Amino acid sequence: MLAMNQAIAQGLVIGSDIAFTFGPYAAIYTKAYHPATDHLMIWGAMYLGLSFALAVYRNFKNASWTMQLALLFVLGAFIYFPDALLFFYPLLVGASLYRSVAADEIEKTGTRTFAAIVVALFIPLGLLPLIKGSALVACIVIVLFSAFLLVKTGRRQLAAACCLVPVVSMMAFWGVAGQPVAALPRYFQSMLPIISGYTEAMSLSGSARELLAYAAEASAIVILVFLRKDVPLFLRSTAALMFSCVLFLAFKAGFVRHDGHAVIASTTLFLVAMLAGTLLSRYKALVLFLVAAAAWSYIDRAQIKTSPQTAFHNFKSTYLNAWTGMASRISVPGKLKEDYARSLAELNARGMVPALEGTVDIYSYDQAYLIASGNKWNPRPVLQSYSVYAPALADKNKEHLVGPNRPDNILFKVQPIDGRLPALEEGPSWPVLISDYEPSSFVNGYLLLKHRQPGSITPAQSNSVLKRTASLGEQLILPATNKALYAKINLQKSVLGSLSNTLLKPSQLEIRVTTANGIEKKYRMIASMAAAGFVLSPLVESTEDFGLLYAGTNFLKGKAVASISIEPVGRNIFWRNSFEIELFALEYKADEGVIGKYGFAQVEDRTGFGNPVLVEKCDGSIDSANGVSPAQTVVSAAALLNVNGWLALSADAAELPDKTYLMLTSEQGTRYFVETQQTERPDVGAHFHKPQLNQSGYVATADVTKLAGDYTLGLAYEKGNSMFMCPQFKMKTHIGR
User: Fold this and answer.
1) Handedness of CA 8, 14, 19, 25 (dihedral sign)
2) How far apart are the C-alpha atoms of 247 and 253, rounded to whole Å?
3) N vs C: which end of the chain shows fewer Cβ within 10 Å?
4) Spatial distance between the Cα atoms of 5 and 289, rounded to a whole number of angstroms
5) What DSSP designation does 230 have?
6) In the 8-state DSSP scheme, what is residue 333?
7) Radius of gyration of the chain from Cα atoms?
8) Is 336 helix (H, G, I), strand (E, B) or coil?
9) What are the beta bridge partners of residue 714?
10) Residues contacting 311, CB < 8 A, separation 6+
11) Nearest to residue 136, comparing CAs of 145, 126, 146, 144?
C-alpha cells in the first residue's frame, strides 16, 4: 500500500483528502517500508507485539505446553492476512477480562494492579482501527461487553476505563501520526459507505461447503463456551456473545469476497478455537482444535494450498525475519532506503509514466506506478475506482475534479473488475472528465488528459429523456438518439435481500446490453453504482472507447445501446421486482480532431512487399475483434478496429513470425494491412508445451476512419523480407459511421 504511506508523507488528511478503510498506521498491516512512515510502522508494531504477548500470556498461561506451541506455530505459519490478528486481539482482551471476573481475580490481584492490566490491554484497541478501520466494530463489541461485565459485577470505574482508554489512546495515536485530531471523526464517517457498500459491490461466490465447515466449528465453539456450568449464566452468556460476534465478523470478512479472503475466516476460526479451548476441559479443547484444524485445512486446500514445506517455511520466516530485519537496520542503516529507491525505480520502469507538468492523478488504480514516477501526486479521495461503489463516494470524487485542488493531469484507463459494466466505475465523474479535461495522447495504455483552460470549459449538459418504472428481466428499449445517454437506476433489495446482505451477501445482478449492431453482452451490475449514475450508451468497454467519446458518439455508432435488461443471478428473492430508471441525454462539445492525437495504428497497403504469398496453413486465432468473437457475427467498426489473438507459422515447431499484421480485404480485392504489437500469451505456450509460443500474442488498435464499406478481416505475417497470408481467417467486417 504505497499510496497510503505516500499520503501520510505528503501530509494528506485521512478521512478528508483520502477516504479509505486503511488508516495512518496501514504500514503495520502491509509491512511496506516508506521513509516517512517507517517510525510509525516499527514502533507501532513493536507496541502491538508486546500487547499481544501480554494478552496471549493472560489467556494461555495455564494451557498445555502443546497448545501453547500450536498457537505459536499457527501465528507463525498461517497468517496470510493480518485481518485475523485484528479480530483475534480484541477477543483475547475480552476473554482475559471474562476469565478474571469468573475467577474473581480482581480481588486477588488488587484493584490498582488489575486497573493497570486493563489499561495496558485496552490501549491497543484505539490503535487497531487506525491500522484498518474495519477493526473498529470488533473493538467496540469487546469494549461494550467488557464494560457490561464490569458494571454487572459492581466495578463501574473499571467499566468507564474500558470505554475511555481506547478513545483517549486513539486520539493520541492519531496525533502522533501527524493527523489533526479534529479530523478523526471524518476518518470513520468517510469509511462508512465503503464498509456498508462492500458486501454487494465486492462479493464473489464460492463453495457452500467451506461456509458450512466454518459455521459448524464456529457454532460448536459458541455452544461449548455457553454450556460451561462452573460460571454464572450472565458471564457465560456474555462470553458466548463475544465469541459469536468476532466469529461472525471474520465470517463476513472471509466469505463475502469468497476467494483467497476465505483464509481470513479459517485462520481466525483456528485461533478462536484454541482460545476457547483454554476455557474448557482438555478433552473438549482437543476436539475443538482438531475440528478447527480440519476446517482450516479444507478451506486452505481450496484457496491457498499450503503444503507442509510452505507452512514450516512461513513459520521460520516469521520469527527469523524479525531478528534479521532488526540486525540489518543496525548493521547497515541505509540499506532500507536503498532498497526502497531500487523498488521505486523498478516500478517506474514497469509503469513508464512520463514526467508531467503540474499535479497528476491516475485512474482507475495503479497508483504505485504514478508515485514511483516522481510526478506530483494529487489523488482523488477514493483512490481506487473499483471502491467507488456508493453515491456518496462517487460524488466525493466528482467534487474533487471540479474543486480548487483538482489535478492538472489525469492518466485514465478503463479497468473494471469482476466483469462489471465498465462505465459503472467513477460513473458520475465521466461527464466532468469529458468537459473539463482534453485528451492529449495515449501513454502506455493510458489516455493522458490535461485540464482545459478555465475560459475553454463548456460544462456537459443533461436533459431527461426517459423516466419510468421497469421490472427485472424486462427488455427496456432505449430512446433512439445520436447523443450519449447517462442513466440513474434505482435497484432495491427485498426484505430477504437486506437480511441476506447483513448475514452474508445477496445474489448478484447482471445487465444484458444489446447494441445497435446486434451484439448482446452481459456484465455484472452493482446497484449502488447504478444509482450514482453512469454513461449507459454508447457501450464503453475500453480506454480507446472512452477516448472516442471526446470525438463524438458518431465514432461509436455501432456501440449505441438499443436495449437493456437487468436480472439477478439465480432466483429473484433478494431484489424487488420493480425499479426506477431515468435517462439523460448528454450534450457536450465534441472534437473529431482528437483521434489524430491518439497515435493509433495506421492502415497501409504495404505495396513495397509486392504480392503477399498465400500459405497452406497458419496456426493461430483471432480471439476477438471489437469485442466480438469470430463465430458470433459481423464485426462493426466506426473509427477503431481493436483485434487480439495469437499467431505462429507452426505451433508444433514453435516457429513465430517476425511481425504479425491484420489484413483487411475489400470487396474489390484491395488489401490493407495493420501492423500489430506483440503480447505475452503464456496460455498458448502452456497448451502446446512450447515456451517459445509465450511470445505468439498480438494486439492492434487501428484508426480505420479513412476506410468505409465491407471487408474481410484476416491475418498476414512478415518473415525475412517477405509477406505471407494465412488462409483460414476470414471475418466479415463492416466499417463506416
Assistant:
1) positive
2) 10
3) C
4) 38
5) T
6) T
7) 30
8) helix
9) 663
10) 77, 78
11) 126
Contact present, 95 and 275 (Cβ < 8 Å): yes
Q: Tell me the per-residue pLDDT of 230-261, one tens digit each, with 9 for 90 and over.
A: 889 999 999 999 999 999 999 999 999 999 99
Angstrom distance (rounded) from CA 234 to CA 149: 8
Query: Kind and range of the H or E element at 647?
Result: strand 640-648
Q: Which CA distances in Å does 150 have to 103, 160, 554? A: 13, 9, 71
Query: Nearest 10 degrees: CA dihedral of 412, 413, 418, 421?
Result: 80
Domains of the chain listed by start with CATH number: 21-181+204-315 (no CATH), 461-529+553-591 (2.60.120), 601-735 (2.60.40)
Query: Any idea what the Cα angle at residue 276 is, between residues 272 and 279, rounded to 5°?
Result: 155
- Residue 152: exposed, middle, or buried by beta-carbon count in 10 A (0-12, 13-18, 19+)? middle
Please state whether 520 falls in left (phi above 0), alpha (psi between -120 and 50) or beta: beta
pLDDT tens digit sequence for 129-161 = 999 999 999 999 999 999 999 999 889 999 999
Least confident of 17-31, 280-294, 458-472, 595-609: 595-609
Q: How far apart are CA 31 and CA 131, in angstroms?
A: 11
Reading the block at residue 128, the C-alpha cell is 487497531
What is the tens place of the pLDDT at every residue in 619-632? 999 998 887 777 66
Report how far apart, in Å, the C-alpha atoms of 652 and of each of 188, 657, 685, 715, 730 are: 59, 14, 11, 19, 23
Per-residue pLDDT tens over the stretch 63-88: 999 999 999 999 999 999 999 999 99
For residue 724, what is the DSSP state?
A: E
Residue partners of 403: CB distance under 8 A and separation at least 6: none
Q: How far is CA 721 from the centre of its chain?
A: 47
Query: What are phi and psi for residue 450, nearest 5 degrees?
Result: -120, 140
State how far the Cα of 412 lies from the Cα of 556, in Å rounded to an integer.
19
Sign of the Cα torsion 674, 675, 681, 684 reads positive
> Residue ranges of the alpha helices (H) in 256-354?
262-277, 282-303, 308-331, 335-351
Q: How far apart are CA 96 and CA 150, in angstroms?
A: 13
For residues 662-689, one letter each, b for 16 or more C-beta atoms within 10 angstroms of the residue's C-beta and e for the rest, the string is bbbbeeeeebbbbbbeeeebeebbeebe
Which three three-digit cell numbers place residue 556? 461509436
Neighbours of 333 (CB within 10 A): 9
Q: Is the Cα dihedral 6, 2, 137, 156 positive or negative?
A: negative
User: Residue 371 to residues 3, 194, 227, 311, 349: CA-CA distances in angstroms?
Assistant: 8, 24, 55, 34, 12
How much of the chain is helix, strand and coil, in % rounded to 5? 50, 20, 30
The more confident residue out of 639 and 501 is 501
* Residue 609, pLDDT score: 64
Residue 567: DSSP 8-state: E
CA 315 to chain CA centroid, nearest Å: 28
CB 490 within 8 A of CB 580: yes
CA distance 733 to 132: 51
Burial group, residue 144, by CB count within 10 angstroms (0-12, 13-18, 19+): middle
- Cα 397 from Cα 433, distance rounded (Å): 11
Contact yes or no for 663/672 (Cβ under 8 A): yes
d(CA 277, CA 299): 21
Cα gap 197→202, rounded to integer Å: 8
